[in-house]
TrEMBL record:
Keyword DNA damage among record annotations: no
Catalytic activity: (2R)-3-phosphoglycerate + NAD(+) = 3-phosphooxypyruvate + NADH + H(+)
Transmembrane annotation, as ranges: none
Domain of life: Eukaryota
An MF annotation (GO) of this entry: phosphoglycerate dehydrogenase activity
Database matches in Pfam families: 2-Hacid_dh, 2-Hacid_dh_C, PGDH_inter
Presence of the UniProt keyword Oxidoreductase in the record: yes
Quaternary structure and interacting proteins, as annotated: Homotetramer.
Domain D-3-phosphoglycerate dehydrogenase ASB: 323-427
Name under which the protein is recorded: D-3-phosphoglycerate dehydrogenase
UniProt keywords, alphabetically: Acetylation, Amino-acid biosynthesis, NAD, Oxidoreductase, Phosphoprotein, Serine biosynthesis
Amino acid sequence: MAPLSVKRVLISESVDPCCKTILKENGIEVTEKQQMTKEELIAEIQNYDGLVVRSATKVTCDVINAGSNLKIIGRAGTGVDNVDVDAATKSGIIVMNTPSGNTISAAELTCALLMSLSRWLSALLMILQFMGAELYGKVLGIVGLGRIGKEVASRMQSFGMRTIGYDPITPLEVSASWGVEQMSLEELWPQCDYITVHTPLMPSTTGLLNDASFAKCKKGVKVVNCARGGIIDEAALLRALESGQCGGAGLDVFVEEPPKDRALVNHPNVISCPHLGASTKEAQARCGRDIALQIVDMVTGKALVGAVNAQVLVSTFSPDSHQWIRLGESMGRVLKACTASKEPYSQVHVTSLGESLKKSSGFLSSAAVVGLLAEGPQKGPNLVNALPLAAETGITVQTDHKDSDEREVCVVEVSVNGSSFTTVGSVQAGVPVLLELNGSVFRQPVPLTGHLLFFKASNSTELLLSVTGVLAAAGVELQSFSASTASSGEQWYCMGISSLLGDIGALKSLAKEAAQLTV
């Protein structure tokens, strides 16, 4: 992938100093401004290419729209709940986090709360009761078996706990290798003495522990949430605590932080923390370092790590991917120019051929859509937002790959009002070239660079003399020429020219079709 230009980064919260140091060492100007209001952030963000946040800064749609130069939003921590990822994606902004930065710290706090609940290690709870229970032989249910869930399991197994779990993504054999038996939630609830949740907050996990699920649990079950407020229904938890169905809760997160409703915080069987999961020196140093290095690696074209909305870019960091991206975008631009009077598009079908392009079809599709949707030199679509923008405009994008031992090419076909138009291109000697246009094969590959003039007409000496006459009259120099094989008596021509014609209308009487563009 071509390196992104990120020259100025704003850090809006307290992030470990190593973050600023690493960014500055790699030529990026850094400004730190903390505790800004939303209005202040909106006024400030337009001056930066990148934004680094933790949890307090709310990167809303309004903030993103104000960031006219923003290319990346980095969260120094796990999750991106405080970032409007959809709005960022539509604006072509990469959003990344540091998924492993606070893993150990969050796992250790979870274990601390589990142990505290077993022995009531809280000043208030110790006043009320002294008799605790051993963890040995108890069953711990872990909902969410990612990095943190795995670390919690390994630590609590050392106390002799049996660990069971649920995760819709982690394969059963993988979690079994950690000593966690996976099962459905319906099977898990009744077996647990303790339950800890480690999932992201999304519609499918909101209120995961609710009145119905508490009713299926053992009476007196204890629960811990160091993940996200809202995974446990707070009203249902309070009812379960009051009835004794839930014997205790360890909460590091709440729906509202800090919570204005103190019913849970003040409950005698609740141990609460003010969102301390990542609040260790080690975690903050790790998150600050990781987000800085991830930004630097992306800017220098080395790698893309931690991106939550730009998976299409992951395979664009090979040495030759940049030219293939240029090819896809250029082919899209050619089709846009040659079908300008026939919009709107209904479908784009991109096919890659050749073993080396097996992992490239995704970014080739996005690149082709970038070319099709581009409107002049202003900030337009990019690889991050191309497919969402296509979907918004009603364009269906289909991607295929076919094995081929003969050649490595990209085929882009667009459908417009029931008709289809096709380009075939490749990269030769490091240069993107057009091989075919609408079934016509060019005798010499057309380098997709500079100003290009395409026209379709019957082959005749008079035609070419007339076209060069139009160019000369406009003060435009002919720099290269390629003609296709004849198709039904007509053929496509491409001329490389020194500048675009001010008025292409003069060619309309000479050719059946004519289009010009800059790539």
